[in-house]
Amino acid sequence: MPSKTHVQTTINGEPRDFLCEPRQSLLEVLRDTLNMTGTKEGCNDGNCGSCTITLNGRLVNSCLVLGVEAEASQITTIEGIAQGNQLHPIQKAFLENAALQCGICTPGFIVATKTLLEKEPHPTEERIRFFLSNNLCRCTGYDKIIKAVQQAAKEMSA
Amino acid sequence: MSEKYSVIGTRPIRHDGADKVTGRALYGADFQMAGLLRGFILRSPHAHARIQRIDTSKAEAFPGVHAVITTKDFPQVDGTKMVDLGEGLMPLAYARGNVLAGDKVLYRGHAVAAVAAINAHVAEEAAALIEVEYEVLPCVLTAPEAMQPNAPILHADLTTKELGENTGKVSNIADHIRFSIGDTNAGFEAADLIVEREFNTATVHQGYIEPHNATALWNTDGRISIWCSTQGSFVVRDATAGILDIPVSQIKVTPMEIGGGFGGKIPVYLEPVAALLSKKTGRPVKILMPRQAVFEATGPTPGSYMKVKIGAKKDGTITAAQAYLAFEAGAYPGAMVVPGAMTVFAAYDLANVLIDGYDVVVNKPSTAAYRAPGAPNAAFATESVIDELAEKLNLDPIDLRLKNAAKEGTRRADGPKFPRIGCIEVLEAMKNSEHYRSTLTGPNRGRGVALGFWFNIGFPSSCTLNVTADGTVNLIEGSTDIGGSRTSIAMQAAEVLGLKAEDIHPSIVDTDSIGFTAVTGGSRTTFATGWAAYEAAQDVVRQMKERAAKLWEVSPDSVTAEKGLYKSNGHSIGFKDLAARIAETGGPIVGRAAVDPRGAGGSFAGAIVDVEIDPETGKTTILRFTSVQDAGRAIHPAYVEGQMQGGSVQGIGWALNEEYFMSNDGRMMNSSFLDYRMPTALDVPMIETIIVEVPNPGHPFGVRGVGEANIIPPQAAIANAITRAIGTRLTRLPMNPPAIMEAIWCQKSSSPHS
Known about the structure:
Strand content of chain A: 15-25%
CATH class of the largest domain in chain B: Alpha Beta
Strand order of the largest sheet of chain A: 2-1-5-3-4
CATH topology of the largest domain in chain B: Aldehyde Oxidoreductase, domain 4
Number of helices of chain B: 20
Shape of chain B: globular
Oligomer: heterodimer
Number of strands of chain A: 5
Largest sheet of chain B: 8 strands, mixed
Number of domains of chain A: 2
Helix content of chain A: 25-40%
Largest sheet of chain A: 5 strands, mixed
Number of strands of chain B: 31
Strand content of chain B: 25-35%
């Protein structure tokens, strides 16, 4: 059994530390070690975006990051988007626009959208589509997701 | 929205919404339990091979491993016993064999053995230590090849059923079916124009984002608990019981949230394996399927070879239609060629029809349902030929379809007569749409249309309603919710009770806690479970009337209920006030219903698409797309639109990019989301929707079901649009850039001016 490394991080604003094997992905650590199962696994090879988180402000697929690489980093996951019981405007917009069906891709889309709107508060439809093209959704055909992002952009800059 | 209704036709926030946007919703892979072991399945590297020997000793000795199983660990029951695993009767040996291979592997990725260990990495490492000796056999990958007399045979015990009679002849053709009406020879003789074309479609996958998963605990009392991602918890229960040869009463299945299915999460793959590993270890065992295995070893939709011939008069009247459909079943029989054959000409009112369908086994994964299974393949062929007829007869393609459209009373080639249907209404909505009336200009651009029909199904559903003292109602159901069905079902109860959608709290419970409920599939959930909720709500209303009568000391028959207001002889009380008094008037009120409705209304869908082709690269851009569908009644229009948009984009992927790209030795070369290229947000435009509502006379609110028909027309509509854009017709799916470049080059080289 490989020995484990002690890793200290900040997740959703709280200090969190964990032990992990060198081969464990950050996704696996989040889900299996820290029981933060809001971040989803769809492919485990960086092609679906379901496990999208931010690592030091950068959008990443957590399946492509090793747990040990997270040392001293700031991580935001889907569990850190709402403020207590107050949904983020993006979360509200997804609900109001029926922008989810099965919901498995939704956490990844919401985390990615938040990063987009923080960088670019007024994206065009084309820009939204380009930015979210790392996140696969098989249920919605994207139409209502794009509309939700447009609504959230409007509300967040109002 | 109809004024008749207060809740139906509105767009409330879905009940599970907050959980799903915060990451709190628990999907199958999220399930945790004390003492949980992790399983890993070893899969065949060969598409067709005999297993000579399996040695599991090294894996068993690997530190951290608790158990290893192979086919020998199944109860040794006669494999010829027939079992129904939710999609019709099949020999137990086939059902069991697809879960863990017997003496042969029939496709690359076929499960061979499984390991349970302290974590997933150890299980995977140990699986690599299992020694399997294979005698590799030649493989066969397409239906036409598998039908050849000298083709490698997959199953030595599979004999061809020819028009209902078993021929006793061993071959890869499991079944040849035929539907016919009238006299096609006479019909073709009467035609002014006959178009006959051959078509091929590649194997495609449902592509749900959540991989299959299952956790099982075989308890010391012999009872098995299963937590998994499934479209039908009762199907998992019954299939697992069938495969393990134990009574259904010994299994409790708890459906977790499901991350997409589209038909592909009806069969069981992992559940019986996890159960056997749990039995051997005495611990709960969780198995997560890797994405590559999802592609290689779960059920995609059949690839197909088809020939369609249609004859018509100059005025567009179709005089005869003939189809030959050969569908790849994958490793085991059951290629969905029956629904393909039933739907191939179902959108038209025809006097002379002959349809032959062949169910053919090949060395690819065993196919499963995918949204209107069989129909998109068939419609690609028919709707392409119809389009060519319209072009050659110089008729508007929608007018040609309208001239021959199926209507109430039309007899389908497979027998049944249509009840009230919305085929004509869908075509008229297409014709009158702003999209169709707009002008498309510019080089390398084209517009196409197509039509599709799907039956939809009924099947059993159960529902319980518990009235609470605060005047809300807890709704208990067994239909797993893939796309907002909690809400569309709750809305139907709310409509009857005169409550708001938010006053109903739906829960999807385990198989011990609700009556039998069939799969979430066949577009049936809002139709059938919604109907169960309607009936259960009527049961609540009846009991509430009795309570009001008791309060007022009047006869229950004198009490009326309308939109939640109960009245009798000058008395009146609202639902909530009455609910507050149920304790004093006789105790709890529980409404119950179990239904098995037969009146599923068929649904028609149409697509209008504008494309632009890049003549340098062969890339197709979807400029504009409109999906039209008869919903019967749209309970929650936003989620109806969502079904239409999702089905349309799956159809776009199917048309343009998606395919199982197979090597000659049967290896899927593109078994990842990088290479199996599903549409991204950047690949598609907004999907416009037109909901047609021709109420289904077979449902209290007129619901038809909307999950499937929308995926049928996009492929042909896009093919027809590409034909207009480049001047040549593609008859093979996918119509990817290389295929389009080839078509453009062939056209140039055959042109007299080149």
